[in-house]
């Protein structure tokens, strides 16, 4: 559910829509937070520099997804947000969001649920980053994002962007994909990674008890 679906008309009216070119900063780390952003078009990444200066992608927001949800309570932005493509975003001002959170129980519950989902996703990314093997990280990504009927994952950006999300160099990701294809574990079709079911099982099959 998009944040815009449960916001009152007053906040929607006060929101500000802006356009970004590829490579533009939406906001930068440690700058004062002015509100929460929703991506309307394009893709926007949230990233930080690791100790050796590499840009580590924490999350890529696509249309309908939000950025910097925790800043509803004020403070600074904790990472950089950069447009990966031409993008259109909507800013919901922080003071109005916080006022609504404090006064509207239905909105507060919906927003807290969204924050809880973000926490679950963050824990999954931490678990993923603790894996040493590029193939294990890729398998973890596939298991979390796979369509259970098609046994596939649609890659919305480039493989280089996916490598950044997994904390890998793009060379490591390409090698892992190639090795898994050679061994018959996966195959690629357009922008999808298809997982081959184990022998004796078909896509979408269910065990009978």
From TrEMBL:
One GO molecular-function entry: DNA binding
Keywords on record: DNA-binding, Transcription, Transcription regulation
The keyword Transcription regulation appears for this protein: yes
Gene3D superfamilies in alphabetical order: Jelly Rolls
HTH crp-type domain residues: 132-199
Top-level taxon in the UniProt lineage: Bacteria
InterPro entries: cNMP-bd_dom (IPR000595), cNMP-bd_dom_sf (IPR018490), HTH_CRP (IPR012318), RmlC-like_jellyroll (IPR014710), WH_DNA-bd_sf (IPR036390)
A single GO BP: regulation of DNA-templated transcription
Protein name, entry field: CRP-like cAMP-binding protein
Upper lineage: Bacteria, Pseudomonadati, Pseudomonadota, Alphaproteobacteria, Acetobacterales
């Amino acid at each position: 559910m998009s944040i815009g679906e449960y916001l009152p008309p007053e906040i929607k009216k006060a929101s500000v829509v802006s356009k970004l070119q590829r490579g533009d900063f939406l906001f930068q780390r440690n700058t004062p937070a002015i509100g929460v952003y929703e991506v309307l078009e394009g893709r926007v990444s949230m990233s930080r520099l690791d100790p050796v200066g590499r840009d580590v992608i924490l999350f890529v927001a696509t249309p309908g997804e939000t950025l910097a949800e925790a800043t509803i309570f004020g403070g600074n932005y904790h990472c950089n947000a950069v447009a990966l493509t031409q993008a259109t975003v909507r800013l919901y001002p922080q003071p109005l969001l916080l006022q609504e959170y404090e006064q509207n129980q239905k909105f507060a519950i919906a927003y807290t649920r969204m924050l809880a989902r973000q926490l679950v996703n963050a824990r999954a990314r931490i678990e993923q980053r603790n894996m040493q093997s590029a193939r294990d990280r890729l398998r973890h990504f596939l298991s979390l994002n796979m369509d259970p009927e098609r046994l596939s994952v649609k890659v919305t950006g480039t493989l280089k962007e996916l490598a950044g999300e997994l904390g890998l160099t793009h060379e490591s990701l390409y090698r892992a994909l190639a090795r898994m294809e050679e061994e018959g574990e996966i195959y690629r079709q357009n922008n999808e990674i298809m997982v081959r079911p184990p022998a004796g099982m078909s896509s979408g099959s269910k065990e009978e008890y």
